[in-house]
Amino acid sequence: MKFTKDHEWVSLDGDIATVGISKHAADALGDVVFVETPEVGKTVAKGASFAVVESVKAASDVYAPVSGEVVEANDALSTAPETVNAAPEGDGWFAKIKMSDASELDALMDQAAYDEFLKTL
């Protein structure tokens, strides 16, 4: 699993990146009440907003940690947004992206680096 400074995570299965928000982000948001996932077939660019998560505290954009095409969206979040709080780094994933440039992963942090990054906040 890799992480961004915006608190998204990526898990790889070949050239398919599963993307969600980190436990830290989910905890900071509080109770998630709405999730807007991207449409299947949408092309996303690394760093661009591709989803929205709303909690009782705030609405936040979710940024694509990699570029590519959305091949699957977690539609279950539309009826069970609380899954993001219950399992942010598991069943609470937002989308699966077929990566167009695997080298973009090189700029992401591994778990240890992300944990160190969190200490600076």
Automatic annotation (TrEMBL):
<dbReference type="GO" id="GO:0019464">
    <property type="term" value="P:glycine decarboxylation via glycine cleavage system"/>
</dbReference>
<dbReference type="GO" id="GO:0005960">
    <property type="term" value="C:glycine cleavage complex"/>
</dbReference>
<comment type="similarity">
    <text>Belongs to the GcvH family.</text>
</comment>
<comment type="function">
    <text>The glycine cleavage system catalyzes the degradation of glycine. The H protein shuttles the methylamine group of glycine from the P protein to the T protein.</text>
</comment>
<dbReference type="InterPro" id="IPR000089">
    <property type="entry name" value="Biotin_lipoyl"/>
</dbReference>
<dbReference type="GO" id="GO:0005737">
    <property type="term" value="C:cytoplasm"/>
</dbReference>
<dbReference type="InterPro" id="IPR002930">
    <property type="entry name" value="GCV_H"/>
</dbReference>
<comment type="subunit">
    <text>The glycine cleavage system is composed of four proteins: P, T, L and H.</text>
</comment>
<dbReference type="InterPro" id="IPR003016">
    <property type="entry name" value="2-oxoA_DH_lipoyl-BS"/>
</dbReference>
<keyword id="KW-0450">Lipoyl</keyword>
<feature type="domain" description="Lipoyl-binding">
    <location>
        <begin position="16"/>
        <end position="98"/>
    </location>
</feature>
<dbReference type="Pfam" id="PF01597">
    <property type="entry name" value="GCV_H"/>
</dbReference>
<dbReference type="GO" id="GO:0009249">
    <property type="term" value="P:protein lipoylation"/>
</dbReference>
<protein>
    <recommendedName>
        <fullName>Glycine cleavage system H protein</fullName>
    </recommendedName>
</protein>
<feature type="modified residue" description="N6-lipoyllysine">
    <location>
        <position position="57"/>
    </location>
</feature>
<dbReference type="InterPro" id="IPR033753">
    <property type="entry name" value="GCV_H/Fam206"/>
</dbReference>
<dbReference type="InterPro" id="IPR011053">
    <property type="entry name" value="Single_hybrid_motif"/>
</dbReference>
<dbReference type="InterPro" id="IPR017453">
    <property type="entry name" value="GCV_H_sub"/>
</dbReference>
